[in-house]
Amino acid sequence: MFDLDEASTNNKNGLQFPYPISERFRCRDFLGSGGSGVVFKAWDELLQRMVAIKFIKNPTFISRQRLVAEARALAKLNHPSLCGVYDVGEPSEDHSSLYMVMELIEGPRVTELAGQLSISDAVKLVLQLAEGVSHMHNEGLIHNDINPTNVIVKYNSSDESIPTLIDLSIAGRASSNRHKGFGVSPLFSAPEQRGNEIEQGRSKAVDIYGLGALLFFLVTGQAPSDEPKRQLKQYVDRCPRRLRRIILNCLHRDPNDRTSSAQLLVQQLTDYRFRRFPWLLPAAITLLISALVTTIAIGIIHYHFADNASSQAEVEIEVVSKIEEALAHSHFARELIKNNQLERAKQQAITAINYFKSSFQEQQHSTSIAAEMTELLVAIKPLLSRTEMMGLLLETTTYLESEAPEERTAKYHLALAKLYHQLTLLHQEKSAQTELWEKEALRAATNALAMRPDSSEVRAFVNQLYDQSNSGTD
Fold first, then answer.
1. Whole-number Å distance between alpha carbons of 41 and 36
2. What is the DSSP letter of 216?
């Protein structure tokens, strides 16, 4: 059997691969070794580019077939925070290894950045990785070993830093077995991964733990212990309560208690960044949100007190407002739509809608935010299915119709009119129901005009409704 460990030792000073492979690849350097194989830097003569080639340690015949199939699946992934997989090679029968040709990622590893990043940068780094992991999970793949040594920070042409998850050779399908030889980093492995020769049934929860452990490391400079909550209490000045909660939710011992998905973690970290660091939002959005927040007067300050290990009181001041959250996510979603980032826009919009609905249920300034939610629904209409849009429109009209008559403003009536109008537009054919929605839209718009007869916007919308109603009866 070919000894890959011995080959890697012999090649640290020599420029040759462990065994002959395609002549298109020229060995340039030995990059390192790990539990699953050894990695070389190589020049691809055919495509004229540098690549990384990983030689996988001792796969059996059966696992080799699985690895080849999974390499093909990995090659289809396309995300800036995931190392690209270009090809997989199967050597001749007298060798027990195979090799994988991957994107060459060069830059500092996250192990070198512990304690050097601000909280804002640390959250951004893990957020970007979580987006990549979410992309993997959507394709049915699990990384299985997210840790600081498997993340390299590269830079694009605009000198923007992009954290990239490497060592995708150990990734696999959800529920497939992790075979012996494909070790994980014990300090950052999930509890269910430790001490098992074969981990039955890979789980997305393992990657959630890895992302949480990575953020824990960036904040504290340490790997999480069996009592991460106690560890984090030593960093209350650097790690706010809300961020601690996000991290600890990823690190639950029971996989079923962890944050349910990488996409949910993306939403939580995005929410945290733009609420705690509002200057990260585009300037125009920040100004608009500030104006709306001031108009609605929604600053609510909560003081949180908790005893720490030294019995000293921890005091944290946090601005808590579901309306503020809704406005931030709503405007961010509309900005993403303008930039054609439609998937992220939909995620932000759904988060905003949930905050809006919660505000309606708690009767927090519903007339003031009705217009904003209506504009958001109109903006994201192309991103939703007809059924999704119908449900949201009906739910929102129900909330608004429950508002006390004395609280209804011109903006409220105009928003309600637009919602009913959108309901009619979802139905191509005339029916008794669409006629009822048309009448409700016209009634609400007329009420708005009665309150704001000088508003050209309201008058134009009323005329539009009259024209459409008349054309429908011709």
1. 17
2. H
CB 367 within 8 A of CB 411: yes
The DSSP element (H or E) to which 37 belongs, if any, is: strand 37-44
- The pLDDT tens digits for 180-195 are 444 556 788 898 887 6
Q: Are 218 and 211 in contact (CB under 8 A)?
A: no
CB contact at 8 A, 320 and 300: yes
| CA–CA distance, 167 with 66 (Å, rounded to integer) | 17
DSSP H or E segment with residue 219: helix 204-220
Q: What is the C-alpha to C-alpha distance for residues 48 and 277, in angstroms, rounded to an integer?
A: 43
Residue type, 73: A
Nearest residue to 393 (alpha-carbon basis) of 413, 410, 417: 417
| Positive or negative torsion for Cα 271, 276, 281, 286 | positive
Residues 6+ apart with CB under 8 A from 190: 205, 206, 209, 210, 255
Distance CA 190, CA 365 (A): 44
pTM: 0.58
**Band of pLDDT at residue 328, cut at 50, 70 and 90:** confident
Q: How far apart are CA 171 and CA 1, in angstroms?
A: 25
Higher pLDDT, 272 or 316: 272
Q: Does the annotation list 54 as a binding residue?
A: yes
Give all strands of the β-sheet with 25-34 in edge-to-edge order: 25-34, 37-44, 49-56, 98-103, 85-89
Report the 10 Å Cβ neighbour count for 58: 18
Question: Tokens 């994107």 appear where?
Answer: 103
